[in-house]
Amino acid sequence: MSITIEQIDQIMDRTKVSYKEAKEKLEKNGGDVLEAIIEIENEKKATVEKEPAIKKETINEWQTKLKWALKQFGKLIQKSLLIKIAWKKQDQFLFELPLLVVLIVTIWLMPFSLIAIVIPFFFGIKMMFKRESGHETDIASWIKKKTE
User: pLDDT tens digits, residue range 119-136?
Assistant: First the structure.
């Protein structure tokens, strides 16, 4: 039984195993390249079959969690559209916008929105949370309560 480097290279190219493993399998199979390749591929197949596959239950759990998260996100969007931010001077409302719109604009135009939020206080304009139920909360007093 004469093993050549060409035989080992042939096995390595075909199976992507190391030189040592290719030589051992070739020696074990009496120099028969085809038998060595078949043995290596069968071992690889057995290893893949032993590895645990993603269970169907796991996928279903993730799908359930994703559906729940999307449902909660939808509820949050709905609530943020129902709550309004209103600018009020004395007893007259100047204008109001849905909370979601205010948040998006604030994030998108950060430096300008900070100025737009602070300046009204200097002119006696109050910012209010205005709920669909008609309940109004002054934002400045709400912040003060939360920070105490």
Answer: 887 888 888 888 888 888
